[in-house]
Design a protein that fits this description.
Elements: H1 2-27, E1 31-34, E2 40-42, E3 45-47, E4 51-61, E5 66-69, E6 71-78, E7 87-93, E8 100-104, H2 119-127, E9 137-144, E10 148-150, E11 157-165, E12 169-181, E13 196-207, E14 210-215, E15 222-225, E16 235-240, E17 255-262, E18 267-270, E19 280-281, E20 286-291, H3 293-296, E21 305-313, E22 320-321, E23 330-333
Parallel strand pairs: 3-13, 12-14
Antiparallel strand pairs: 1-4, 2-4, 4-11, 5-10, 6-9, 6-12, 7-8, 7-11, 8-9, 12-13, 15-16, 16-20, 17-18, 17-21, 19-20, 21-22, 21-23
């Protein structure tokens, strides 16, 4: 009887041992992580043309040796900022001494496990632009100039500083940040693992700049992209029927009605149901029209535009939707050549 009890106790201990081993593997987290309490230190507003500084607070967990890896970080920025030319990154960590330099990842460098995509493309495929309402944004991705070794059961921390010069216009958007490492990158993670992490902030505002506020935070019925177009760029006007409370959203044909203002205080109106002004479907209840302002408004040599005002109408011209479901037109300001 005693031998049987000892045998049962032994089996229980063995079962408990295996259970604890399995539990360790289940709850163990590997990869890169933003700090749960204080992921990002950043400014809530900055003046146009000034430098925005953000600090990412991160940690790394490794249950196997990671040899020769680059630390990878990125920021989502408006295209008008040309952030690839105006961004600096560096970091300090618990396994290095002093400030460590970072550099922009070459466009021809493919990200690991990303199906042939380079780093900005892979980050966009994974994170998109968050809840920003415009695609006039881009991911700027850097990695550490030097490579590092992280040993098994080593859990270093790193503070990554990002400095980017803002553009000239008044603008608000939700900043996005990206964190990864060059070895695992976009591999499919296990439960609790994270090799490519994203973080988005609340709405951030650039003030004291040029023109009216460009708003990427809040959904809008109508928007012009890119925000920094000239009259010789292709301008895309988008209409979001999901935000329109009028019957216009249920029409089969929707048109752009626009009035352009020249630098000499003349106005040019194009408000007819012609093919150039007809919007095309771009998804469920989403429409768009691509136009070349110089041609669309039949500009003469020497004529320049400062802005356009526009609204959307149906085939008859009787239905009209403007800013915030009113008759007030949407506005788009052109940038100087």
């Amino acid at each position: 009887m005693e031998n049987k009890n000892q045998s049962k106790k032994g089996r229980k201990k063995l079962f408990l041992y295996f259970f604890l081993v399995i539990l360790v593997f289940v709850v163990a987290e590997c990869g890169v992580f933003f700090d749960e309490v204080d992921p990002v230190t950043e400014e809530s507003t900055v003046k146009a043309g000034d430098t925005l500084t953000s600090v990412l607070h991160t940690n790394f967990k490794s249950y196997g040796d990671k040899l020769g890896l680059h630390l990878v970080a990125g920021i989502l920025a408006p295209k008008s900022w040309k952030a690839g030319e105006h961004t600096k990154m560096y970091f300090e960590s618990s396994i290095t001494t002093g400030v460590q330099s970072m550099e922009i990842i070459p466009a021809n460098e493919l990200a690991a496990y990303a199906n042939g995509l380079n780093w900005p493309e892979a980050v966009k495929a994974k994170l998109g632009f968050g809840s920003n309402t415009s695609s006039d944004l881009e991911w700027i991705i850097f990695w550490s100039t030097n490579t590092f070794d992280i040993g098994s059961n080593q859990f270093p921390t790193a503070d990554i500083t990002i400095k980017v010069k803002t553009g000239p216009e008044n603008l608000q958007y939700k900043r996005g940040y990206f964190l990864s490492e060059s070895i695992d990158a976009f591999t499919t993670p296990g439960a609790g693992d994270s090799y490519a992490a994203g973080f988005f902030t609340n709405c951030f505002t650039v003030t004291d700049g040029e023109g009216e506020m460009v708003d990427y935070c809040n959904p809008k019925i109508g928007i012009g992209e890119p925000s920094n177009a000239t009259i010789d760029d292709i301008l895309t006007i988008k209409y979001d029927g999901d935000l329109d409370v009028s019957e216009l959203k249920n029409q089969d044909e929707i048109y752009l009605c626009a009035k352009a203002y020249t630098s000499s205080n003349q106005t040019i109106e194009v408000c007819s149901q012609l093919s150039d002004a007809k919007l095309k479907r771009a998804g469920l209840n989403k429409w768009r029209v691509d136009l070349w302002p110089r041609k669309f408004f039949s500009l003469q040599a020497g004529q320049e535009l400062t802005k356009i005002e526009y609204y959307f109408t149906d085939k008859t011209g009787n239905m009209k939707t403007g800013f915030s479901n009113t008759d007030v037109p949407f506005k788009y300001t052109f940038k100087c050549l």
